[in-house]
Write a sequence for this structure.
């Protein structure tokens, strides 16, 4: 399901880790699940060790610039795993695409889901990107999943302190799921890889490049695209129904191009 996404990210210079819970075969079983993020954390620990060993990743991993990212169950894991490592300054960004509904109760294995408190604490530590779509019907009937996700996000923010982006992509761009056995609307919108991954993956890639490759530089084109208001910036994207930002200290006049 995710091979094309992972391959595309790797082609842009990222070391991409996709951890299995059991193994490649058993992970296809819908009853194989994990929502606490420990497998993402184990993968990062493994890559960090491999970076100094004479093995496939020797000398290839930038261990000082780490991103937790995932879709659906993996998005919940990205939030949870990144939060477990909250004090680790090497983590520069968390990306959650269409996560499970926020706690205290969520999808199986309930109640192991993400909480507004965890999301708030992440947004105070480093930037967090959360995406959904108007026609996501995975957890609630359309359009209530998107409304719920926005409510979780908004209630997690601390005005003037949080650094986060909420993006709700529109129905027209998130139709035609190809990997679902039952209809869940636009839940699998991140799996779209044609036309450069439109509509979600181009913005995920911009965020990844900004914080994992450009140090959050406010002078970079990635910063202008993600946070600015030019014609080609996220704020002007025709693919979205809702965008909300929390920029915190991004425009601190005393900052000298400091990464945020």
């Amino acid at each position: 399901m995710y091979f094309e996404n992972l391959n595309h990210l790797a082609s842009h210079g990222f070391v991409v880790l996709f951890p299995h819970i059991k193994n490649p075969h058993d992970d296809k079983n819908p009853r194989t699940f994990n929502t606490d993020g420990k497998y993402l954390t184990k993968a990062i620990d493994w890559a960090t060790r491999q970076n100094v060993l004479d093995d496939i990743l020797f000398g290839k991993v930038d261990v000082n610039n780490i991103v937790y990212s995932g879709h659906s169950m993996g998005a919940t894991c990205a939030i949870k795993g990144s939060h477990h490592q909250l004090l680790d300054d090497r983590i520069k960004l968390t990306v959650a695409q269409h996560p499970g509904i926020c706690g205290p109760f969520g999808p199986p294995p309930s109640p192991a889901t993400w909480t507004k408190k965890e999301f708030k604490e992440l947004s105070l530590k480093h930037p967090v990107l959360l995406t959904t779509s108007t026609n996501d019907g995975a957890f609630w009937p359309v359009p209530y999943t998107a409304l719920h996700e926005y409510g979780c996000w908004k209630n997690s923010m601390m005005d003037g302190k949080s650094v986060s982006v909420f993006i709700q992509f529109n129905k027209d761009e998130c139709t035609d799921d190809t990997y679902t056995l039952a209809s869940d609307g636009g839940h699998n919108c991140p799996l779209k890889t044609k036309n450069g991954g439109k509509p979600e993956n181009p913005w995920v890639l911009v965020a990844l490049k900004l914080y994992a490759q450009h140090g959050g530089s406010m002078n970079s084109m990635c910063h202008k695209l993600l946070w600015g208001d030019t014609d080609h910036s996220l704020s002007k994207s025709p693919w979205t129904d809702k965008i909300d930002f929390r920029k915190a200290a991004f425009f601190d006049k005393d900052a000298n191009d400091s990464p945020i």
About this structure: The chain has one domain: 3-249. Residues 251-260 have pLDDT under 50 and may be disordered. The chain has seven helices and five strands. The radius of gyration is 17 Å.
